[in-house]
Amino acid sequence: MNQPAPFFLDCDTGIDDALALAYLLATPRAELVGIGTVSGNISAAGGARNTLDLLKLAGHPDIPVAVGAHDPQVGTFHGGAPHVHGDNGIGGVDLEPSDREPVEGTAAELLVELARKHAGELRVVAIGPLTNIAEALRLEPNLPALVAELTIMGGAALAPGNITPVAEANIANDPEAAAEVLAADWDVTLVPLDVTMTNVLEESHRQELLASDHAVSQALGEMLGYYFGFYVDIFGRACSAMHDPLAAAIAVRGVELAVAPKVRVQVDTTGGPGRGQTVCDLRGQYVGFPDQRGARCRVVLSIGEEFAPHLLGTMQAAWLSEDEVMRTSASPGL
Ligand code: RIB
Ligand code: CA
Q1: Is the pTM above the cut of 0.85?
Q2: Does 39 sit in the ligand 1 pocket, CB within 6 Å?
Q3: Chain centroid offset of residue 172 CA
Q4: Cβ pair 169, 163 in contact under 8 A
Q5: In the chain, what percentage of residues exceed pLDDT 90?
Q6: Which of 11, 16, 197 to mutate to test the pocket of ligand 1 (most atoms within 8 A of CB)?
Q7: Residues 300-312: pLDDT tens digits?
C-alpha cells in the first residue's frame, strides 16, 4: 500500500477503539472515508458521540459517522461494559463535545454506499460486534466483491475467551451476525485474543502518551488509566491488551505477521456453553499450517515485531510533523 487506501471503520468506541481510530487517522497508509458504530462497549449512539468528539479533537471533522445497530440479531443490547471502558465508554474522560451529528442512515447503509463508491478498493476494519457488517451483506449481496479486504478484531483460536471461557466479546455479542459474516464469499483476516492479549501497552507507554503535547495522545493516555485498572486483575500489573489498534495496524499492513494460517472458522451459535466461540481448524499446525482448501479466513496468531513502539511511533510521526508544519508556516521568513 503506497497510496493511502480508503478504509471504513466499524466500531463500538470504547477505549481500545479510540486507539484504533487515532492510529487510522495517523497512519499514512489509510484514508478513513467513513465510520459506523454498533452497540458493544457502549450503545451504538454513545459510540457515535465518542467518535465524533474524538474526530473533533483530532482535527478531522469531515469523516462521516453513522449510527448502526443498537441490538444484536438475537436478543437485546446488554448495556455495555462500563467496568472495562467506563460509563461513557472512554474511561470517564470528558472530551469537548463535537457539534456535528451522525449522518442520516444506518452504518450498514453508509458501508454499502462507500463500498459502491470505492468498488474493489474499500478496506473494512470491524472492531465491534458484527451486526452492521451482516446487515450490509443483506442490503448488498455483492458486498464481498465490492470490498477489497475485511479485517475483524474478534474471536479466540487457541486462547481462552474474555467474556465466557471460550468466547470473545465482539463475537459473543452477536454470534449470529459473526457466523453470517464469516460464511460470506470473501477473504477475512481475523485478529483474535491469541495475538491481542500477547501484545500489551505498558505504563511506560501510557506515560509517553501523557507527556505528549498532542491533545489526542493526552486524552488516550488518560483513558488508558481506566482501562489499565480493569487489566490489573488479568495481567497482575498496570497494562492493557491492544485488541482494536492491533487489528487496525494489521489491516493497513503496518506490522509484519508471524504465524497467520488460512483456515476454516465457524462460529458456535448454539445456546450451550460454546455459544460465541470461534472454532478455528488449527489441526494443520503439526505439519506447518498448510492452507486448507477453500479456507477463507486468515487467523493471526502472532506478529513478528513489538507492537507498542509501532503504535506510538505512528501517532508521534503524524502529529509531530503536523506541529512542525504549523511552526514552519507560523515563522516569518522560513
Ligand atoms: O474483546 C475485545 C473487543 O471487545 C474489543 O474490540 C473491545 O473494544 C470490545 O469491543
Ligand atoms: Ca471494540
Answers
A1: yes
A2: no
A3: 16
A4: yes
A5: 91
A6: 16
A7: 999 999 999 999 9
